[in-house]
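Escalation from tier 1.

The customer reports that the assembly of two entities below gives different structure tokens on two consecutive runs. Tier 1 could not reproduce it. I'm attaching the input and our single run for tier 2 to review.
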Amino acid sequence: MSKTISVEEVCRVEGHGGITVAIQNGEVKEVKFNIFEGARFFEPLMRGRPYDEIASLTCRICAICSFGHTIASLQATEDAFGVKVSPQTQKLRDLMMQAEMIESHALHVFCLVLPDLLGYPSAIHMAAEHREAVVMGLGLKKIGNTLREVLGGRAIHPCNAVVGGFGRLPSAEALASLQDPLKKALDDSMKAVDLLASLDNPDYAKSPTLYAALDSRGGIYGYFGEEVIVSNGQRLDIRQYRKLTNETTVPHSHAKHSLFSGKPYMTGALARLILNQEKLSGLAVEAQKRLRLQLPSDNIFDNNLAQMVELVFSLERSRQIIAELLREGMREEPLPPIKPRAGEGVGAVEVPRGTLYHRYLYDDQGRILEADVITPTAQNLANAEKDFRAAAGRFAADPVDSLAFKLEMIARAYDPCISCSVHLIYL
Amino acid sequence: MSKPKVGIYGLTGCAGDQLAILNLEDELLEVAEAIQIIDFPMAMSGNDEKSPLDIAFVEGSVVNSHDRDYLKKIRQRASLLVAIGTCAVWGGVPALANEIPREELKQKVYGPVGKAFDSIPAQPLSSFVKVDYSIPGCPMEKRQFLQGVASLLHGDLPLLPTYAVCMECKRKENICLLQHRNQLCLGPITVAGCDALCPSHAIPCQGCRGPVEEANVASEVNLFREKGYTVEDIRKRLRAFAAPAEAIQSIVGKE
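Tier 1 run:
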């Protein structure tokens, strides 16, 4: 007996992708995460463009991770030209990434995942009976966006972050005015933790997984670092990212697949938490305990819980960073000198869905000769197929609809950003 | 009158305009009560993919035959079709690669496997279907979406600014980046609506909202040339977000 499970389009995810699984006599024959999101050829279209417009174009790869793309891009350019940014700029960038985590994780956990766990087609439908939870989720999302507006000038596609620093320094008053709303959001986030902890967390795809994440800087849990840790014990300088992400083209996907030493791996909140566990601090530790999130874990659904832990962490950490900035006093600083030179630069940052890499090769006029962008979703595709296979094997006897729904939920647990994944390396 | 049936769609793009709708944290639940969102794959499952729609909001540009066919299906179902965001209105950033032959792009990016991939030059929705109303922006401003919905609910087509970013910028008394700092600022030829966001952050306008009606692109180009910019730099800046727009193509060409 054979059957094919086909999810034409996975809903409640960013972008366009489908799933096909073929089962024959209870055995899984074929598994495909079909990525039919259109190709935009971002990297080739960067060629010849001057350095000062690269970040504002590459951030258009993805709206949800537009702050992450901006920062990875700026770092790659600064690396190529040997530009060092000030500690204040670095703190503000750190805050930008905390804000992106808050907004993106709140969107994913409340609008995309909770409807599955509570049995609704969307957060809007869910509001009929769980209005308080939806309003709380939207409130958490909003504080992330407000912070993004204050820092980036705009919640999506920030215009204010430039090579070397900022167009206009965010005002101390604006940052100070966020401290109370952030405190309220932090209290709300702990209520959200209790809500999530009260629901069953599925484990349909439990199977051994390799993880990769940046080793967060300065002994503090966070989203910046110079080295990648892999859960098999290996470490790589971010400049060697290709050894990790090493991509292959597959016919059923406009996004390439990543394999490390021939194995798929997972990057994202769960990977970060597993690999930087000892650095987690504050209320997030309590959140993890209440969510009963035991690490390491081989259950991709724990990524939803890990995002919740990071949501708590980033709210609390944002308050600390703002307090530090205010205590030190915000200073208008001239941009560091920027002298374009020929050469290569790499930037890496942890974005909501995992590690993002930008690499540029510049000519001596500061124009792009070659660009390469590796997104977390592209890295996760092969691992998602591994998980589809595991679930299809375990639930091979399920009715087609029920198995299809499980596969969709697995896809959503990765919080895939499919637009991002179709990034198209320029060889 | 029963609540209007609404669909919200993304073709190929960054999802920023759909996200702008989801970013209406204070208004989303109210909006969802005033209209009936029956098809919104990015935010909902169990979508109604067949019923007629009173309004379809579509973001993204058309970059393959899947996008084109999907768009035509949406058009057939919808009384009003609204293009949201610069990709849908003007083709957006992906249209920058239009001047490179598809075969070359596919070969470079995917190697031999790429040959079979479906890809056409990025085009705005209006190249394929009738568009009733356009809200440009990268992303669109969420308040303009709200104004749009409010007007459409009252049976009106909403009004959007028909003047340039430059006007908004002057009103804010910003230092002129073009005149005083000799920067490549597209404020004079870009349609307003963002409250001169970038120049207010001392960043020159990159034209992400597309050209204003009757934009005098030729005189802007002359001004940049007088300031010492090369034709190539001016071309690149002008084409970044709206390369397929007639106002821009007629001056800096298709190549």
